[in-house]
Design brief:
Layout: H1 2-17, H2 19-22, E1 34-38, E2 41-45, H3 47-65
Antiparallel strand pairs: 1-2
Length: 66
């Protein structure tokens, strides 16, 4: 458990340091992401982004288990 928490902390710290470059990636603005923008209402449903992130995490975890 301690090793997992340390690795998670390092990943979060790295993401924080790399945020200026990460924010430039088109993740969250992919075709298939639904944006409803009306006066008084803004809804964002990142369907394609969720599928892509799920696939990447599944592959990474599959590789780490081997």
């Amino acid at each position: 458990m301690q090793k997992t928490l340390i690795i998670l902390g390092v990943i979060i710290a790295a993401a924080g340091l790399l945020w200026p470059w990460i924010s430039r990636l088109p993740i969250g603005r992919l075709p298939g992401d639904i944006i409803i923008d009306r006066p008084g209402l803004k809804v964002f449903i990142p369907i394609t982004t969720m599928i892509l992130v799920s696939l990447v995490l599944s592959v990474v975890l599959w590789i780490l288990r081997k």
